[in-house]
């Protein structure tokens, strides 16, 4: 069983050693490590080549800058593994991750869901209090959304490479929130999903990352386009209960981005009322939408106060 670990690399000179070290020191040795240098302007290209010269399992791709999605797709195009794992170069994984996944991978699941520790925070992003471990993709989505445990980070799962190839599942080029566009499409297509209790991924929040940047107008624009794509997919599902749950979740996520990004400062142009109104279902979501539509600024102020109280 060969694992392909794809690592996009861009401007992470301070962090890349920790990431790559966690990969080359895996207790399970049958792996290939694909470092995709996305035209990084710092010393990362040299560092990547240095690692490749010392470990034959490491392959380096040097490419013109195209962003995270493009780098991941470049890695997928050369991957040979039975299963694929995505690791961001400022994060790292536990040294026994591949060994723990290998037994499950032998059973041939399309997707195996793991768990992660967020630096300074929780280590329980995806685990559900559910006795079932084997799911169909839609069944898993329904259970996860019902439990409030449906993170869409691509690095949280490992994927059968042949399943991705047969379904032409890649990352959309040039957008932010690419995982929110990729992971739902994967889960909708998956015939078999295994929910494991393997906490393997260590997610680091750093200054200057996409998630911490101040101006989130492009985030909103890109995520809205993703919402429209997913809306079409969700409305086509035969399970109408799941369809409604997923559509409502899109509204919740968009409102969260609108609030956290302080997008009220730019007027209401980033508040797509028609989309939000036709997909909000739960009373709680409708109440949020009503207040935000009335006054985004007031909603932001109330939400900020509530966050401070509940900390």
Give the helices and strands, then pairings.
Layout: E1 3-9, H1 16-24, E2 31-37, H2 44-54, E3 58-62, H3 67-78, E4 83-86, E5 92-93, H4 97-105, E6 111-118, E7 134-135, H5 137-146, E8 157-160, H6 161-166, H7 178-189, E9 193-203, H8 217-235, H9 240-260, H10 273-279, H11 283-294, H12 296-310
Parallel strand pairs: 1-2, 1-4, 2-3, 6-9
Antiparallel strand pairs: 4-8, 5-9, 6-8, 7-9
Helix pairs in contact: 5-7, 5-9, 7-8, 8-9, 9-10, 9-11, 11-12
Structure commentary:
The protein is of the alpha/beta class and 311 residues long. The protein has helices at 16-24, 44-54, 67-78, 97-105, 137-146, 161-166, 178-189, 217-235, 240-260, 273-279, 283-294, 296-310; strands at 3-9, 31-37, 58-62, 83-86, 92-93, 111-118, 134-135, 157-160, 193-203. The protein is built from twelve helices and nine strands. Strands 1, 2, 3, 4, 5, 6, 7, 8 and 9 form a nine-stranded mixed sheet that branches. The radius of gyration is 20 Å and the shape is globular. The mean pLDDT is 91.
* SSE ordering: EHEHEHEEHEEHEHHEHHHHH
| Overall geometric form | globular
Describe the biggest sheet? 9 strands, mixed
Number of strands: 9
- Measure the end-to-end span: 44 Å
SS field, number of helical segments: 12
Radius of gyration: 20 Å
Query: What amount of the residues lies in strands?
Result: 15-25%
Helix content: 40-55%
**What does the average pLDDT come to?**
91
- Regions with pLDDT < 50 over 5+ consecutive residues? none
Oligomer: single chain
Helix/strand class: alpha/beta
């Amino acid at each position: 069983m060969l694992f392909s670990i794809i690592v996009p690399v861009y401007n992470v000179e301070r962090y890349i050693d920790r990431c790559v070290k966690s990969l080359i020191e895996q207790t399970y040795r049958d792996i290939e490590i694909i470092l995709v240098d996305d035209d990084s302007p710092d010393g990362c290209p040299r560092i990547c080549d240095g690692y490749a010269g010392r470990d034959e399992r490491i392959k380096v791709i040097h490419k013109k800058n195209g962003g995270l999605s493009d780098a991941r797709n470049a890695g997928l195009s050369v991957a040979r593994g039975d299963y694929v794992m995505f690791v961001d170069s400022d994060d790292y994984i536990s040294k026994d991750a591949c060994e723990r996944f290998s037994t499950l991978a032998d059973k041939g699941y399309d997707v195996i869901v793991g768990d992660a520790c967020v630096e300074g925070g929780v280590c329980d992003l995806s685990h559900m209090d559910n006795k079932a471990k084997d799911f169909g993709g839609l069944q898993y989505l329904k259970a996860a959304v019902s439990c409030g445990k449906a993170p869409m980070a691509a690095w949280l799962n490992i994927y059968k490479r042949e399943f991705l190839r047969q379904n032409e599942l890649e990352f959309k080029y040039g957008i932010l929130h690419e995982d929110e566009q990729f992971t739902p499409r994967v889960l909708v297509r998956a015939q078999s999903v295994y929910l494991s209790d393997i906490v393997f991924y260590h997610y680091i929040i750093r200054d200057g990352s996409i998630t911490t940047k101040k101006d989130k107008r492009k985030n909103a624009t890109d995520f809205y386009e993703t919402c429209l794509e997913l809306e079409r997919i969700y409305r086509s599902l035969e399970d109408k209960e799941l369809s409604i749950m997923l559509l409502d979740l899109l509204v919740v996520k968009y409102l969260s981005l609108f609030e956290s990004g302080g997008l009220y400062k730019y007027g209401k142009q980033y508040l797509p009322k028609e989309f939000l109104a036709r997909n909000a279902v739960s009373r709680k979501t409708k109440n949020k939408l009503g207040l935000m539509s009335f006054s985004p600024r007031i909603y932001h102020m109330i939400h900020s106060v509530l966050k401070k109280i509940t900390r």
